[in-house]
Amino acid sequence: MTETLVNLASPDKLFIGGGWLSSAGDGGVDIISPASEESVGRVAMATREDMDRAVAAARHAFDHGPWPRLGGAERAAYLRRIAAEMDKRADDFARAWSLQVGMPYSQSSQTAPYMSGYFSYYAGLAEQGFEEVRTPMMGGHAIVVREAVGVVVAIVPWNAPLATLALKVAPALAAGCAVIAKPSPETPLEALILAECIAAAGVPEGVFSVLTADREVSDYLIRKPEVDKVSFTGSTAAGLHIASVCGGRMARVTTELGGKSAAIVLDDADIGTVVAGIMPNLVGLCGQQCAAFSRILVPSALKDAVTGALAAAMQSVTVGDPFDQATQMGPLVTRNQHGRVLGYIEKGKAEGARIVTGGNRPSHLPKGWFVEPTLFADASNGMTIAREEIFGPVGTVIAYDSEEEAIAIANDSIYGLSGGVFTQDPDRAYAIARRIRTGNFGHNGRVIDYTIPYGGFKQSGVGREGGVEGLHGFTEVKAVFMAELPSHLRA
């Protein structure tokens, strides 16, 4: 049962305003294992009434409670206590990820212990303060202050539910916001475990809530006038909707959306480095990554060598039960996602791309939403598999004849989230990086680091998460002009 696997104290309750409360309705959210296709647990389903309660608690906590009025160092102490509680629950976080998403436990158990670092990092930034003294042109003093944006709704996807949640909650709390977390209905467990950690850390009443619910009820939440900001990670279609709703009432919004990122292989690239840099993008999380290098742009002269090396690497991947230590890639997250990925594979074949390897369900796995690592070749950038985000373990090799053509292909996309270049020359790498319209770009691989800003150009989103920019995204800037500085800012 879920309680045993992740040690939840109250899986049948909602965490609203600092306490575990029964839902106003009698519905529930079933957790389905993507490996077995069976229900492995159930959590409470929030209703509109529950959302009203959570928003009211957050509004009161922000408007009248101590949290936004604490100093940065005081809030930092709470964040460090949250981090300590998360360290105690690292294995619960890992098992939740593997149970709900199919991430191999051998990988999730290595990653989960690092998640508390998000809170420690933002604790350090909060301690640096939120005031900067400047000198206006006309004399006197100006204090540029950053103040918490207010009540924040954090909506996160199912592929990396804890990392995407921490990337919102940690800086929002550090800034002094009150936060309502809305996890995906496929992956509610991490948010509930985090709620237990936050409660154990003694965070004041009303500052944090978790609402487990379906997507229809969530739409009600983002329309609430008491909500000052929505921070969303997910599909571009959903992000466009959320942005339009928030824009209609001038609510603040940050979106981190889809991608169709290009890996540009240059003529001097080391093929072993190419394989090592691209494979984690294609098979990690079963390819369910918005920053995956799903378009692989290769010089025509290297096309066969790179394609063969990637295919061989894919064929060596062990696909299976997430809790089997030998497994390197688990299943896709849902039945719908499984059908969607297989549908894209069929489109690729129908439009003339050639499957080099994969393309089917693994023959030894008749149950579960598994698919083979799949590589297409002889593709063009106009094909559906090169234009649309597949969100599965599918790579597409596209040949090019000049660097200018490669740059043009890489930029020929509605997305601009990630990308990379493979070359042994750092000068060539940087020159190409500056010409690709994307928010993140790597040299001989992909790096995502929560201390560095992350986000997209074009339809990959608005705003940045991570780094000091991620903290600033949960603040409003105020300029205070003073004839004389207050005592605490005098040298």
Automatic annotation (TrEMBL):
Reaction catalysed by this enzyme: an aldehyde + NAD(+) + H2O = a carboxylate + NADH + 2 H(+)
InterPro entries, alphabetized: Ald_DH/histidinol_DH (IPR016161), Ald_DH_C (IPR016163), Ald_DH_CS_CYS (IPR016160), Ald_DH_N (IPR016162), Aldehyde_DH_dom (IPR015590)
Domain Aldehyde dehydrogenase: 20-480
Pfam families listed in its UniProt record: Aldedh
Domain of life: Bacteria
Signal peptide boundaries: none
Gene3D superfamilies: Aldehyde Dehydrogenase, Chain A, domain 1, Aldehyde Dehydrogenase, Chain A, domain 2
PROSITE patterns named among the record's database cross-references: ALDEHYDE_DEHYDR_CYS (PS00070)
GO molecular function per UniProt: aldehyde dehydrogenase (NAD+) activity
Organism phylogeny: Bacteria, Pseudomonadati, Pseudomonadota, Alphaproteobacteria, Sphingomonadales
Protein family membership: Belongs to the aldehyde dehydrogenase family.
UniProt entry keywords in alphabetical sequence: Oxidoreductase
Protein name, UniProt field: aldehyde dehydrogenase (NAD(+))
Enzyme Commission number: 1.2.1.3
